[in-house]
Amino acid sequence: MYEKLLEHASKYNVEVYEKPMVKNVKGLYADNIIWINKNYLKTSADKGSILAEELGHYHTTVGDIIDQSKIANQKQELRARTWAYEQTIPISKIIEAHRLNLRNKYELANHLEVTEPFLEAALQRYRDKYGLSVNYDNYTICFDPLGVIEWFDHKNF
């Protein structure tokens, strides 16, 4: 996923750099440049999860939103994260994982090349948006506990 996100960034002329940064900052976006904190980069999934969110800022936020005590900045942060979740873990990918017989969140996170905390946050965002489940094509996706139900059209049997 990290490589695909780098291609996405390049398509929009967003430069991406990995460099050591202060401990509490995983990534930062400003003026078509994304910095990813090298101190957090243990795996490709770590890099991809951080890059996805920073690309979300590129696509959805305006101005300096570092001060998260302001409601407007919190809303922009949520928009950026939602963009990241929907781009990297669309509902169709959860169905794909079901079809591949992936059995748990660990396997799902590995398949999607994201961290487990990023996956958990995405599932929580989907719960906030849709409730405990959502219908998608001929499937019902349950977010808590995570599961997929495939519905068959009895008229075709």
Concise structural overview:
The protein is of the alpha+beta class. The chain has helices at residues 2-11, 44-60, 71-88, 91-99, 105-112, 116-130; strands spanning 15-19, 27-30, 33-37, 133-136, 139-143, 146-150.
Unreliable stretches covering 5 or more consecutive residues: none
Record the strand order, biggest sheet.
1-3-2
Q: Estimate percent helicity.
A: 40-55%
The number of helical runs is 6
What amount of the residues lies in strands?
Answer: 15-25%
Order of helices and strands: HEEEHHHHHEEE
CA radius of gyration is 17 Å
Please give the number of β-strands: 6
Task: Please tell me the overall pLDDT.
Answer: 91
Computed structural class: alpha+beta
Specify the overall morphology. globular
Distance between the termini: 39 Å
**Largest sheet features:** 3 strands, mixed
